[in-house]
Amino acid sequence: MSSNPDEQQVKAAAAAVAAGEGDAVVVEEAVVAEAVEGVEALKVDEALKVDEAVNKAQAPTPKEVSKRNTIASLPSFVARASTASSASGPSRRASLVPLSRRAADGPPVAPGAVTAAVRATNPILDELLHALQLLAANDPALTQLDLKDCPVFSLDHGSALADALRDNTHLTTLNLCNARVHTRTACELAAVLRVNSTLQVLNLESNAIAPLGIKLLAESLAFNTGLIDVRLTNQKQAAGIDAEQTFAKALVKNEKIIKLSLQFRDAASRNAVDRAIMRNKDTARKLRLAQQ
C-alpha cells in the first residue's frame, strides 16, 4: 500500500535530520509539516461545507413547520398533550398545545363564538387544540364540547378526539355538527362508543359519513350504555338499508336511546327503531317516578 506523498516528505526530512545534514533540512521539515497542516485544514473546511449543505437540504420549509405546529400531521396528539409540562416551559412535545391556553382557563370557546373581531387573539385552531388537551387530560370542567361548524377539524383531529374520548369520564355532550367529519372519524368514534359509558349526546349531523361509518355507529349502540341522543341526519350519502337494519337490531339490545335522528328509507327498520325508542322512553319514565 502506497503512503501519502506529504507523509513521505516528512519522513524523508526526519531521516535527513537524523543523518545530521544541517539546519537546512530542519527548515525543510518545518515547511513540509506546515504544508501538511494546511492540507488537513482544507479537508476539514470542505467537510464542514458538505455538512452545512446537507443540513440545509434536510431543513424543513416554513410551510412544513407550520403544518407540524397544527397537529394535522401528528396522530399521537393525546400522548403529546398528556406529557406536556407547563411548569418547565414550552417543550418540543408541548409545541402542539396553544401556549396561551391552560386547563385553568376553563372550557374552550365554541367555533361559532369565535367571530372575526376576536379571531386574531382567539383563533379557532387554538380553541380546538385546547379542547383536545382538556379531553385527553380528562378535565372535569369539560362536560360539553361544541365543535359545530369547525372549519379546521381534520382526520387527525378526529383520531386524537376518539383516543381521548376512550378513557374520558366527564364529557356528556359532543357536538360535531357540520364539522367536516368523514367516515374514518366516524369509524374511530364507533369503536370508542363500545367502551365509553359517559357520553350521552352525540351530534354528527351535516357531515360526510358514508354508509360504512353509519353502520359501525349503529353496531356500537348494541354495546353502548350511556348514549340517549344520537343525531345523524343530512349526510352526503344515504345511510343505506344495511345500516338501517343494523340500527333496528342494535336497538333491540340498547335500553338507553330515547332519540335517534336519521332518515330511514326501510319501513320495517324504521318501525323497529320506533318501537325500541318508545320502550326506552317508558323505561326512563318509570325510573324517574321510582326515584321521586
Description:
The chain is mainly alpha-helical and 292 residues long. The chain has helices at residues 5-18, 23-58, 62-68, 77-83, 124-136, 155-166, 183-193, 211-220, 241-253, 267-291, and strands at 144-146, 173-175, 201-203, 229-231, 259-261. The protein has ten helices and five strands; from the N terminus they run H-H-H-H-H-E-H-E-H-E-H-E-H-E-H. Helix 6 (155-166) runs parallel beside helix 7. The chain is elongated, with a radius of gyration of 33 Å.
How would you sum up this structure in a few lines?
The chain has 292 residues and is mainly alpha-helical.
Distance between the termini: 100 Å
Radius of gyration: 33 Å
Poorly predicted runs are 21-27, 62-100, 117-121
**Share in β-strands:** 5-15%
Structural class: mainly alpha
- Which percent range fits the helix content? 40-55%
Main sheet properties:
5 strands, parallel
Q: Total number of helical segments?
A: 10
Shape: elongated
> How confident overall, as mean pLDDT?
74
Please list the strands of the largest sheet in the order they lie side by side.
1-2-3-4-5
Could you give the count of β-strands?
5
H-E string? HHHHHEHEHEHEHEH
